[in-house]
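Bumping my old thread because nobody answered last time. Still need a sequence for this structure:
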């Protein structure tokens, strides 16, 4: 593995820099388009770097749990209540409560009907399980215990405290990458969006919903775009992991062992009488040394082959 000391000091590289490095490392042409398509295939992780000093708003995103009846109450108040009753004051009136209860009872009936229709014919095994607990699905259970799990924002929005985040590819960020590939290939770019907006991934694995605020509004909404002057980058960590995956874990040798192998070769050459060593002779002799017992001759041969390939590509 060709570890660069300067690379390990950098937090990230641009897409062009990553393409140039992979081209040198493997001796085959790698383009920015190649990297972006590998990102879509989830073979390498793409990140975004925000400009210094720019405030970016986000909110945690994940499983959002609430009572099914509470969700249905919200839907009734927004879309099904008479327009003259769609205000905070009217929700405490007897008329509103009566209409709301009628709506909830209808929703409960639809729920039972949908369960039977969905599972009886399509998934009979699940339907048999449902029948065992059918008596539990009372109206009181629907009102007080039945939990609806949906994806949504969790907690309050906050300003991001770092400048680099990964893309989880679950929202508009995937569309951005697809559009960028189309643009680089000089294809027609079709304007698309995802209603939930775009997402980021923090160091702890939390999915974050990228948010934006409109002027004079305390509310924030899913963001369709990234801040201006952002950069699409590959972090050093993800680039090295990708290189390692291409090299193959079985035949790879870390930096420490690479130094030990070089020192061992120099020692053999200094202590032996002048002769023309073959690669096989060197690997046989080195594999017998105690400090390399855990590697095995195959890994050492593979290491030599990789070194020869790198040398050949560097002098072409």
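Sorry it took so long. Here it is:
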């Amino acid at each position: 593995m060709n570890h660069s000391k300067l690379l390990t000091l950098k937090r990230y590289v641009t897409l062009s820099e990553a393409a140039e490095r992979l081209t040198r490392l493997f001796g085959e042409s790698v383009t920015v388009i190649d990297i972006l398509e590998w990102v879509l295939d989830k073979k390498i992780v793409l990140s975004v770097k925000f400009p210094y000093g720019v405030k970016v708003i986000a909110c945690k995103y994940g499983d959002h749990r609430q009572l099914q009846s509470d969700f249905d109450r919200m839907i009734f108040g927004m879309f099904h209540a008479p327009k003259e009753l769609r205000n905070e004051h009217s929700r405490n009136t007897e008329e509103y409560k009566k209409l709301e209860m009628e709506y909830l009872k209808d929703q409960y009936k639809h729920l039972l009907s949908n369960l039977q229709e969905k599972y009886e014919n399509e998934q009979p095994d699940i339907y048999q399980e449902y029948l065992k607990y059918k008596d539990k699905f009372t109206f009181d259970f629907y009102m007080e215990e039945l939990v609806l799990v949906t994806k949504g924002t969790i907690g309050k929005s906050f300003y991001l405290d770092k400048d680099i985040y990964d893309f989880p590819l679950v929202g508009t960020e995937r569309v951005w990458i697809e559009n960028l590939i189309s643009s680089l290939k000089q294809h027609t770019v079709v304007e698309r969006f995802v209603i939930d907006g775009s997402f980021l991934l923090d160091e702890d694995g939390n999915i974050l919903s990228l948010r934006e605020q409109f002027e004079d509004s305390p509310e924030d909404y899913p963001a369709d775009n990234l801040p201006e002057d952002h950069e699409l980058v590959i972090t050093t960590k993800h680039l090295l992991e990708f290189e390692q995956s291409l090299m193959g874990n079985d035949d790879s040798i870390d930096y420490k062992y690479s130094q030990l192998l070089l020192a061992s070769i120099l020692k053999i050459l200094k202590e032996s009488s002048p002769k023309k060593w073959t690669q096989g002779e060197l690997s046989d002799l080195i594999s017998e040394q105690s400090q390399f017992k855990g590697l095995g001759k195959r890994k050492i041969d593979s290491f030599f082959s990789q070194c020869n390939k790198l040398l050949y590509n560097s002098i072409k």
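The beta strands are 12-14, 47-49, 57-67, 147-159, 164-166, 199-201, 207-213, 220-222, 231-235. Let me know if any region looks off to you.
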